[in-house]
Amino acid sequence: MSLRRLILTCLCAAYIATAVAHAEDAEQYWPQWRGPHDTGTAPKAKPPTEWSESKNIKWKVAIPGSSHATPIIWGDRVFIQTAVEVNAANEKKEIPQSVRGNGTPDVSVLASMQPGERPRGRRGRGRGRGGRGRREREKPTANFKFDILALDRVTGKTLWQTTCAEEVPHESLHRDSTQASNSPVTDGTHVYAYFGTRGLHCLDWNGKLVWSKRFGKMNTRNEFGEGSSPTLHGDTLVINWDHEGDSFIVALDKKTGAEKWKVDRDEPTSWSTPIVVEDGGKAVVITSAANFVRGYDLNTGELIWKCGGLTNNIISSPVAADGVVYCMSSRRGEKAMAIRYAGAKGDITDSDRVLWSDDKNTPYVPSPLLYDGSLYFTKARPLVLSCVNARDGKPRFEPERLSGLEGMYASPVAADGKIYFVGREGNTVVIKHGSEFKVLASNKLDDGFDASPALAGNEIFLRGRKHLYCIAG
C-alpha cells in the first residue's frame, strides 16, 4: 500500500470513528427539540417519575423574556432561546385576563382552546378585527432582543447570553404564542440559534457569533406567529419556510451558512419541523404540510416523492422509523397517516404506500411520540390520549382522558418505560409504557408550561413561562 493510500485510509477510519462517537454522544443528550432521533424519545435517559416544588428539584432558575423554545442539552450545558422586550412598559401578558364583552373565562377554558378560537363571554363569541381567529394583540412597538443562553447543567448558572438580533417584530402573534417559539439545535461543537424572521445564527461553545443568515420576513396565517425549528444532519442544516407568501425549503452548510440548495414550495403556513431519514443509503428530508407530505434528497433538494391527505394548519412534526413516516393534523378535520417512504417515487397519494390512516383523536399542536413500536398522541378537546400500534394503527388501549391536565401544547416525551405529558397549568402526568393505560404519577409545579420538555441522563428539563426547571431523581 502506498503512503498516500495509507494516509487516506487512516483519515477515513478516523472520520468514521468520529462520526460513530458523535452519534453515540447524541443519544446521551437532547440536541434538538424532539430528541436525538426526532421521535420524542431519550434512549439512554432515566429521569424521575415524581417531583414537586419541594421534591427532586435539582435547580430552578428564572429565564428572562418569553419563549416556547425547548431547551437542548449537550455535555454539561443547557441551551435555551428567548425574546426579551427591551421596553418593559410594553411588556406583554402571557394569558389575557379579560376578553371583549362582559365575560371573563377561567384559565381552563383558555387552555383548552385552539389557535384562532375566541372564548365565549356573556354577550356571545368575541370577534376582533378581521373576524374569528384574527390577532388579539396589537402589533409590537418596542424592540425585542433575540437571545440564546448557555446554562451550567449542574447548577443552572448562566455561562453566557448572546443577543443574535434586536428589532421590533413585524407581527402581533396568537394570544398564546411568543416571539421566540423556534428551538435551537447543536452538534456538540456549535449551537445554531434560530428565530425565524430574525435569522439563523451559528455560535461557538463560548457564545461567539460565527455566522448569521436571514431568509426574509415570514407572514404567518392570521399572524399566529412562527414555530418551525431547524434540522441538522451531518454538515447540513435544513430550514422549512412555509408562510402566506413565497414558501420554500433551504439547505445550508453548517460551517459557513452558505446555501447548498433552495426549492420553492406550494404550501400555506405550517409550523412543522422537518426530519431527516435514511433510505437506501440516501439521506431524505421529510416535511409535513397541508397540501403534501414530501420527501427531498438532502444532497440536491430534488423532490423524490409526495403524498397528500392531511388537513390544514400543520403544527405537529412527523416521526419515523423502519422506513415509515407518521404524520398527523387536526384542523377542519382530523388525520393520521402512516406512509412507507422506503423506495417511494413520485405522487404516492392514495396508493398502497399509505399503510394505514385514521380520522379521529389526532393532535393539533403537540407532535406524536414514537416509542418502541407505539404511537402516543393527544386530542385537544377534550384532552384524550390515544396509543396505537405503529405497524397497523390498531389501538394498544382505548382512548383515555388525561385527568389533571387542563390543556396541553407541549409534545409528549419518553424514556425508561415512562411517558411524560406536560400540561399548560403546571401538571405533568406520567404513565407506564405498554398495552394498558396506567398512571404512575401526577406532578404539580407552580409555573405554567407550553414548551416541550427535554430528557438527558437522570434529568428532565421543563421550560416554564417564567423558570427553567432541572428535575432529577
Explain briefly what this protein structure is.
With 473 residues, the protein is mostly beta strands.
Describe the structure.
- With 473 residues, the chain is mainly beta.
- The chain has helices at 3-28, 107-112, and strands spanning 57-62, 72-74, 77-85, 120-121, 124-125, 144-152, 158-167, 185-186, 190-194, 200-204, 209-213, 231-233, 236-241, 247-253, 259-265, 275-279, 282-287, 293-297, 303-307, 319-321, 324-330, 334-340, 346-347, 354-358, 369-371, 374-379, 384-389, 395-401, 413-415, 418-422, 427-432, 439-444, 454-456, 459-463, 467-472.
- The strands form 9 sheets. It has a 5-stranded mixed β-sheet, with no helix packed on it.
- A hairpin with a 2-residue loop joins strand 4 and strand 5 (124-125).
- The radius of gyration is 22 Å and the shape is globular.
